[in-house]
Structures are given as C-alpha cells and as structure tokens.
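Q: Hi! Curious about what Polymerase/histidinol phosphatase N-terminal domain-containing protein looks like structurally. Here's the sequence.
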Amino acid sequence: MIIDTHLHTMEGSDDSHLPLERAVARAKELGMDGLCITDHDTLKLAPMAQELTDRYGFLILVGVEILTYQGDLLVYGVDSIPSHKMHAPELARLVREMGGVSAAAHPFRDNGRGMGDVMRLCPFMDGAEIFNGSTKPHHNRQAVDMAEELSLATLGGSDSHWEDRLGLFATRFDGPIRSMGDLVQAIRDRATSPVTYDSKSGLWVSPEIPSREIPMREAIA
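A: Let's find out. The predicted structure is below.
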C-alpha cells in the first residue's frame, strides 16, 4: 500500500495551501491508497478521521508533526500531544509509552527543524523520514545513512503544503493498512520503504539515493 505519511492541510496547518479535498483527489489520481495527515502540533482532524474516510471513500489517517527543541518529530498513534515543548528524546519516550511510534522528520534539514545527530540519543524513536519532498538531496542522503546506522523504519513523505507537491515521495507498506494501529505496527516491524511517483510509467518506484558527494557551492555556503 502507498500512503503519504507527511502532509499538511489548510484545515489544520496555518502555513498550508492544500485543502484536504484537493489532497484526496490528487492522491487518487496518483494511485495512492491513503493519506496520513500530519498537521503542525495539532490532532485537530483526528476525531474526524473515520468520517473523512467514509466521506471520500479513501483512507484518511491523522498523525502530527511536533516541533521539539531539537527539530521536528512525526508522531503516529496517539490520542493527545503535550501542551509544552519537549526535547526530542523525551517526546519519543513519551510517545512509546502512549502506544504510538515516532519518526524524525527531514532530520538533516538545515533550518532548525531537523534533529540531525540527536537521533542517536533517541532509543525510543522507531523511524526516520529519509526522503522528504521539501529537503535538499544531500540532506536526504544523510538521513538514509543515519537510518541505516540506527536500523530505523524508513519513510517517505511529500511534506506537501501545496497540491502539486503530492507524489514527490510517499511510503510503501508491505501489508494492508486499514487503521492507524496497522500503520503503527508496520513502522514497528520496519515493514516500510520510501517511494516516488514516476510520471512516465505511472508507477510508484524506489527513489534514487542521492550521491554522498556534496556540491562545492553547497559545502561553502
């Protein structure tokens, strides 16, 4: 199954220009099997997930992207989130205690929202978003390497705030996903892999892993 595990909607994120209805329509066009909404620091849409699934005839799950002191953490399978900002290792532990899973979002993005090497200090974190649609290729490369080092579940997400970003990356799940519980278990089992939409073939394929070599202009910047 193909599910975008990181996107933002106008209904839940102030910085998004993507109405949920349009996200669903585009996801269907691309042959996705579902969407997991991860609006910023809110589970606002979570109580409506089943209603939305029924309305659109399309799987809608709701997680959340939480900003910690060290960067963003994608969280799945919890009913509530802390009312105060936390350190990433502390939040990952809390999520595990609540029965959910967490994954580092765009971990090497250089805008203050990537966890980077702090991932090594998060033994309770289950996954890493190694392909993010709004992240530089060499930063995705670093995420690939770190996820391999830590034996984490690997995710792909468009990080869409606009309709045309859907399809850049998503996550393939090895088994059927019918609920948030299924998604959580699949991440725990490491039964995931990132994919990207190939417009020429109309198929979801494994993304090409960027070279480890960083262009000189980016190394100097």
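A: A fun detail: Residues 214-221 have pLDDT under 50 and may be disordered.
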